[in-house]
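Question: does this match?
>
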Amino acid sequence: MNKVILCVTEKNSVAAEVSSILSKRSYSKKQLAQYFNEYRFIHPAEEHGPNQQYVVVHAQGHMLELEPDEGYEWGNCAPSDLFTCGVHFKENAVFRRSVLKPNAAETDVLILMLDADREGENIGYDIIEIFCSVLPANTLLDIRPANLPKIRSPTEHILQHILSADHTPAHASNARTIIVRRARFFGLTYPELTAAIYNAGPIDMNVVDAVDVRQFTDLRLGYSITRLQTDKLRSSFVDYKTGAFKPKKTISFGPCQVPTLGLVHSNDLLSLRNHQSSSFALHFVCNPHPLQASSGSVFKELANALKLWDSKPNKREQAESRGLVFTPADTSHFRSYLGCLPMLKSVFDTLQKQNRVIVVSAIEEKPYTIHRPYPISTLDMQRALSGRFSSQNIMAAAEALYTRGLISYPRTETKSYPSTYTISYFKQITDKLAHMSPNISVSCASLAEYAHTLLDDSPGNPYKLQLPRSTSMCSDNAHLPIHPLACPPCSLTRCEELVYDHVARSFLASVSPDARGTRMTIHTRLGEHEFIATQNKLVFDGFRRVFRGSAEGVEGSFTAADSLDLVDSSADIVVGSKFSVLRAPYKQFFGVQDLHIVNPTDTDENGLLVSSIAWDRDNHSLVIDLDSSDDPKQVYEEGNQSSDLLKAESNGDTSNGVSQFATELVPLPMKESALLLAMDQHGIGTDATMSDHIALITARDYINSNKQIEPLGAELLQFYKQTPMGVQALSCSYRSMLEHGMLLISEGQLDCKTVHDDCIRWGMKLYDNIDSLQVVRVSGPGGYRVMAERPRKTTIKRKRYQANGDNATSCKSRSKEARPVRIRGTFMCCGEQCSRNLLTGSCSACGKTFQIPRTDGVVIVLKEECNRCGLSLVTITQFSERIVRICIRCRTD
């Protein structure tokens, strides 16, 4: 009689693929219940005897759900009772009744083929407990040499049907025994699966305990604090779309979601605190090929040279990428607008005399090497592709590719292959890619061609297959790096195609030669000022022939972001070579913390008044800039920073000649790749769950799809920051403590009950802090209020000044004639009392109005701090008389 081996996988797709591979597509399928299938086949392996009958079934994630005991429902107990109440596991009745029970009597070996991570280990023990509940009398599950778990308490029925190293039932000597084994595999291929079954070992109970600690603490903290803060806040929150109160809305607390929200909040703080005052940049874009003879027209006038040379960013970027760009070697002249004007005039006068031709005065060359990239982990894949799709969609596509056997297990922290993997393994994968069909996608043909090149062993081929680089810094010792296993037999979805292409290119790059090049620094002088241009001549592209991602291990000062192959190697650049200047753009980049206030009352669009208020870190002073010549449309982008970074919102009140403008500083949005990296650094979630946490706080309206905090998230931040423990929850300290404890538990270095008790004590302190808050009042849609990282709206009033009976029209005509120069770091306007406008500010909290002086002023930083954002207050002093005390971030008294 054939031995029956019951294999349990985590998903139906994996069960189908495992059955298809092991049976060589000769299996029978039966539907046991809705969403549950069974696969049967005969496998001639010899590990458990010849011609074993395999029965492959599947779970659907966790089959046991942890919940409080009866009597602890919402409203039946105090929220604090949930810290000490009894809890139990509720099993999936359909899985128990329709999947495990029919196979309990005939099974001889139970193989747990769950995902090779912590959650997979814990799900495996869930299945063991459910299987014990359906076993016939006098039948045992043998999990030895593993022990029973320490956090969860097995029921009496489970203890009667389980045999472990620390527990033996009384009737064990006469009982029928079912052996339990844990198979760990990293790819759905025949060699991988058969090796996993052959080498199947015991379940790791340390890992089961680690996940149990997280489950039990998450339940107790989540249930108790969610009920407490909902009772305190639910009457204060409104539906920001309709304005109606939402008394039944649950304001949930999640030990992973709250620190994720805190990371988004920290990014907002960082983008505002790392203030950069307005900066200026001058560069020349030259033809990359030297001139044979001097030619070209001259600059007509300085004003034309100061204009941006093209209004279309895409054309501007294309021209710059094709040209040779010279920038000033000394940037000290660009610290202020006035300071750079003499230098600009001197440079442009020299260019005019030279007929727009510059001469190379010196050349420096230095070789560099870019090492091939490491194999990729889950985080690398998510960060690289998050600009095209959300991390959740990326992981869903990777899971789909994995279940079809196209890539290895996509949830891994490992970036190195084991030392036992030889070059033959990588040749085998490369050979599969070399035979990829070109009809699947556009990139398949180029990948197959490059794979053929790597396999070419001829002496003249510089592209020889290499062993991947290894590192001990990134490894979970449980999975292989993500790499392709097979070629797709048919077309893929757009996201799947992107994921597979990235995985394939990353793999080919990891086994390719390093790239080599020469970095050339070109010097030229225009009068007394020196300019330099840097070009990188690619001598050998190596892995960059197939992969354009970020590179590591660059020697010298060269960075991976630099362009490698913009210079034609045939262009001979020597000392004395001449280049024609194609463009000479002069740009002004506005700082992150500048406020731009636009007056829309003037009928002449070209006469719009733009003003900015900022903190000059270099001079330690408050900056007020006034200029009527700037068009607010000419706020251009710097790098990837969008001009949407600075927004001005107007309320349009123009009664009695007074215009009021509510200005609000919007923090720089956080990229999902940056958020994923921050979560990984702080130990929030795992590579398998980080994308889920981001999606969850987005679904709860804490942040939006651009990773900007929504009003509900802002009010929660305000709520948590009123307590010391709430600040800890936002700062990721608790989650980092838990993740570190789980790691030590998994390695057997720390007792799981110690970590569990520490986490519960921390949660009770947070509960007490929140409970001690008296009356919680929150504002409507909008700002951060208490934190003031997204400052409260401060009203700026501009009053038309009418002297000697002049009317508003004459005042307006004078304003066009007198165009003041921007002077940063002082409060002068034209160097004298400004007769055009009086600038006043009013505090939106108390309504107090103050006048901002126009003559020379002194800013003194006080020791006092703003009660809203914690930033030092300053006083604006004129003629030794105190005018106003103001917070430079909140703009309030």
Remarks:
- The radius of gyration is 34 Å.
- Residues 205-233 form the longest helix (29 residues).
